[in-house]
Design a protein that fits this description.
The structure is a homodimer. By secondary structure, chain A is of the alpha+beta class. Chain A has two domains: 42 residues; 164 residues, Electron Transport, Fmn-binding Protein, Chain A (Pnp Oxidase, Chain A, Roll). Chain A is 17% helix and 33% strand. Chain A has five helices and twelve strands. In chain A, the strands form three sheets. In chain A, strands 1, 2, 3, 4, 5, 6, 9 and 10 form an eight-stranded antiparallel beta sheet that branches. A two-stranded antiparallel sheet of chain A has the order 7-8. In chain A, β11 and β12 form a beta hairpin. The radius of gyration of chain A is 17 Å and the shape is globular. The two termini of chain A are 32 Å apart. The N terminus of chain A is likely disordered. The interface between A and B is large, with 58 and 58 residues. β12 of chain A pairs antiparallel with β12 of chain B.
């Protein structure tokens, strides 16, 4: 259990599987949100987690280092395996780097288009001197298996352990251990960075499942 | 110069910078297409090449091993640097793997939505026993700096050297050395794999260049 200083004093409720706790100092409020979270965030079968990363959306990555939560915006990610394993690229120039190296875990949170502007803003300032959760009015939710928080406002949250770091190329290798979705949003649309300041929002969907049936792992 | 057997008998024209040659046995036809290519494929400033990979589209990767051209479909890619450097994941189960390891080069070709179904089909069969360029009516164009062919039907083509291979995680590290775009298509739309047989086509574009000005490298 991470202890969050100030407003994020650590409080826990017993947890069982798919449940969790919103960080707050008010028990009543917390219990309400706890129930709300129980409703909103559904456990996603782990073998489906890669389907949120494979399309290449912009993601948020949260970390918790002692009493300091942080969140960064990342676009340079890759799926490595269906199990699932992921990679992302970041380095020592990034404030979250120290926590990633030290605590060997993070949460990958996938925002929908409603949070596009906020996601860009989150990626444009460092968490070194500010509390980005507070500044951007993001609600950290206690994760099931890592100390890094889920983000309530995101459609999907994937709890990850960092299992390797390839320093030569600044590549972090992650293994997902829990995944959550807010399935109250029935038609989530994600967004992709072009890299020049423009972003592309998800458009139409096309189904070619029949052609590639042999390539799709069971349960996906 | 790679020698292509059968239909792809090797023929060259003098090359200078942004020009190239279509592989064909008919000189006249070749010259025509050569000119056409000179028109269609424009040299893309190398520092902009990452903007085609960063959104996370499905891509085609071509290789040339002696007289054998091949093309595979890949969705697991990542930008590593603006210079530009990329990563993708594949392994020995893939027919192109041997050529990637041996020849240390490839071309990343980015297809538009008009080629979605064909791209899925290309990814669903192995090049071990068939000529996928022939089967799928793709036109290989001679690249400027690698032996792997460009694909005339793709909007962007990026010539890459493989500068490292991280066997433990099946990650190839690539450095782009030339890039081309077919700018006759004024509104190209690319597509992203979900991983479960569905694909997401590019939708609306949103510009947040002003917010992230400090993060955009010069010339992009």
């Amino acid at each position: 259990m991470v202890k969050f200083g100030g407003k994020f004093a650590a409080l826990t409720l017993s947890m069982n599987g798919s449940e969790g706790v919103l960080y707050t100092t008010e028990i009543r409020k917390m219990t309400t949100v706890y129930k709300k979270w129980g409703y909103r965030m559904k456990k996603l079968p782990l073998q489906k987690a890669f389907t949120f990363l494979e399309p290449g959306p912009v993601v948020l990555v949260t970390t918790a280092d002692k009493d300091k939560l942080n969140v960064m915006t990342i676009s340079w990610t890759m799926v490595l395996d269906f199990t699932p394993r992921f990679a992302f690229m970041t380095g020592s120039w990034n404030f979250s780097y120290k926590s990633l190296i030290k605590n060997r875990e993070c949460v990958i949170a996938i925002p929908t288009v409603e949070y596009l502007k906020k996601t860009v803003q989150i990626g444009s300032i460092s968490g070194a001197k500010i509390d980005k959760f507070k500044k951007f009015k993001l609600s950290p939710l206690e994760a099931a298996s890592v100390k890094s928080p889920l983000i309530k406002e995101c459609y999907a949250n994937i709890e990850c352990k960092i299992i390797d770091y390839i320093q030569k190329h600044n590549i972090f290798i992650l293994e997902a251990i829990e995944a959550w979705v807010d399935d109250s949003n029935k038609a989530p649309r994600f967004f992709h960075a072009v890299g020049d300041g423009r972003f592309i929002v998800d458009g139409e969907k096309v189904n070619h499942r029949r052609i590639m049936m042999d390539k799709i792992p069971s349960g996906v």
